[in-house]
Amino acid sequence: MTVSRVGLDSWERSTFTAAGLTHDTFRKGSGRGVVVVHEMPGITPSVLAFAEEVVADGFSVVMPDLFGTPGRAPSLPYVVTSMVKGCVSREFTTWAMNRTSPVIGYLRAVARQLHLECGGPGVGALGMCFTGGFALAMMVDDTVVAPVLSQPSMPFAVGAARAANLGLSPDDAHVVAERAANGCPVMGLRFTGDRAVGSRFETLRTMLGDAFRPVEFPSVHRMDHSVLTEQRQDDAVAKVLAFFHERLDS
Fold first, then answer.
1. Which alpha helices (H) appear in the chain, and where do they start and end?
2. Which pLDDT tens digits describe the chain residue by residue (250 residues)?
3. With contact defined as beta carbons under 8 Å apart, do 114 and 68 qualify?
4. Which alpha helices (DSSP H) does 40-131 contain, by range?
5. Which of 18, 39, 88, 162 could cysteine-pair with 128, CB 3.0–4.6 Å?
6. Which domains are assigned to the chain?
7. Closest by alpha carbon to 35, among 67, 58, 63?
8. Using N-to-C axis directions, what is the helix angle for 170-181 and 200-208, rounded to 10°?
9. Cα–Cα distance measured from residue 189 to residue 185, given in angstroms and rounded to the nearest whole number
10. What's the rounded Cα separation, in Å, for the pair 88 and 128?
11. What's the CA gap between 164 and 162, in Å, rounded?
12. In 3D, which of 57, 40, 94, 88 has the Cα closest to residue 229?
């Protein structure tokens, strides 16, 4: 099978190890740092296109390669294969409630290293879909000052309790709420009819109050899900970039 790598050749590929995990990372750009955590099934052309927009707007972007084949276009078999691998990996908590995925320790280390290299008040962090809630867990580390959750979908929204759960340990949830109360806003994006997101936006509103900044779009099609990529909303991209500038420029 031919794998598209359009655009990836312009990114610096390296390997980063932390918290007992090792993954390749892709980096490009200059300016303040932003960690973009790709959605399922991997760093697809549309995820890469979004990351390129963040770079073009004046940021230094790092994309950890957590699963999938970088540059490969999505297809149903590819999505299913990546989902199965994600579900059995010990790095990710896909069903359990009130637990922070082990991979978060790795992503926090990526953010700290990026901040060390780029400076400024901190870094941005954005997760999508399978990784949508990861940016929330990353903000336990005060290096992350601009967390963005795009269609957060873990743990799987099966049953009312899981549909409302944010995938955070009680200790991490306490720190997140405290940071929000002390002035760190959290942006969330979704289509209003996206069942994968469940009732997490309601949980976020209750937990974070005015610090939660929801960006919501009416669902036109039953499968509307990927706000920044496959079903890209221009206004969503613009608001994410403005949020990064607001929080990171200084």
1. 45-56, 76-88, 103-118, 134-138, 160-164, 170-181, 200-208, 234-248
2. 233 444 799 999 999 999 999 999 999 999 999 999 999 999 999 999 999 999 999 999 999 999 999 999 999 889 888 887 777 777 887 666 778 888 999 999 999 999 999 999 999 999 999 999 999 999 999 999 999 999 999 888 889 999 999 999 999 999 999 999 999 999 999 999 999 999 999 999 999 999 999 999 999 998 999 999 999 999 999 999 999 999 999 8
3. no
4. 45-56, 76-88, 103-118
5. 39
6. 8-248 (3.40.50.1820)
7. 63
8. 60
9. 13
10. 19
11. 5
12. 40
* pTM beyond 0.90, yes or no: yes
Residue with tokens 């959750």: 149
**Max alpha carbon distance in the chain (Å)?**
50
According to DSSP, the β-strands at 60-64 and 21-29 are antiparallel
Where would I find the beta strands (DSSP E) of 1-57?
12-18, 21-29, 33-37
In contact, 132 and 140? CB cutoff 8 Å: no
Residue with structure tokens 């691998």? 85
